[in-house]
């Protein structure tokens, strides 16, 4: 679905770039709330090993590792800022990139995921789809675990 969404968006942008007059409905916009909800819930569905409908810290870390792998587009086992610039701020990157060699490694990334999980979890143990959507902390967590 995420792939479909980005294809739809890029197709939309290509049209917008070539056609001078575009109706407002055809202009690419931010993913809708429903799109974001689908992304959030799909990440939970993929990693909810104990099937309680929520992510615990272990499940979230696993999702974060998969996201890390996907984001590491040049395959050098670390994340350079351009690889994650659409997900996290330069300040967050700098704070968690403690060893300044080749960007963030998996341990540093997982530390970031853990910190964001702690901030996002309402009950201090788990996060739900709604947690990943309704609070800034939840959206910050979603940014580092979806792929
Ligand atoms: Ca679970
Ligand atoms: Ca990389």
Q: What's the number of helices?
A: 8
Major sheet:
2 strands, antiparallel
Question: Care to count the β-strands?
Answer: 2
Whole-angstrom Rg: 17 Å
Main sheet: strand order: 1-2
Distance between the termini: 11 Å
**What is the mean predicted local confidence, pLDDT?**
87
User: What is the percent of helical residues?
Assistant: 55-70%
Structural shape: globular
For the record, the count of structural domains works out to 2
Are any ligands bound, and if so which?
calcium ion
User: Regions with pLDDT < 50 over 5+ consecutive residues?
Assistant: 7-23
- Report the sheet-strand fraction: under 5%
Q: Strand pairing plus helix content: what structural class?
A: mainly alpha
Order of helices and strands: HHEHHHHEHH
Describe the structure.
- The chain has 147 residues and is mainly alpha-helical.
- The chain has two domains: 1-30; 43-145, no CATH class.
- Helices cover 61% and strands 3% of the residues.
- It is globular.
- Residues 7-23 have low confidence and may be disordered.
- Bound molecules: calcium ion (CA) (2 copies).
- One calcium ion is lined by residues 72, 74, 76, 78-80, 83.
């Amino acid at each position: 679905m995420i792939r479909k969404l980005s294809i739809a968006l890029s197709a939309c942008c290509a049209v917008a770039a070539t056609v001078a007059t575009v109706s407002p409905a055809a202009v690419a916009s931010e993913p809708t709330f429903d799109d974001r909800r689908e992304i959030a819930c799909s990440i939970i569905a993929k990693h909810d090993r104990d099937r309680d409908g929520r992510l615990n810290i272990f499940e979230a870390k696993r999702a974060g590792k998969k996201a890390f792998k996907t984001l590491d587009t040049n395959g050098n086992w670390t994340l350079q800022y351009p690889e994650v610039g659409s997900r996290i701020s330069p300040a967050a990157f700098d704070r968690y990139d403690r060893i300044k060699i080749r960007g963030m490694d998996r341990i540093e990334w997982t530390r970031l995921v853990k910190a964001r999980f702690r901030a996002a979890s309402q009950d201090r143990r788990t996060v739900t789809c709604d947690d990943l959507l309704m609070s800034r902390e939840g959206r910050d967590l979603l940014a580092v675990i979806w792929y």
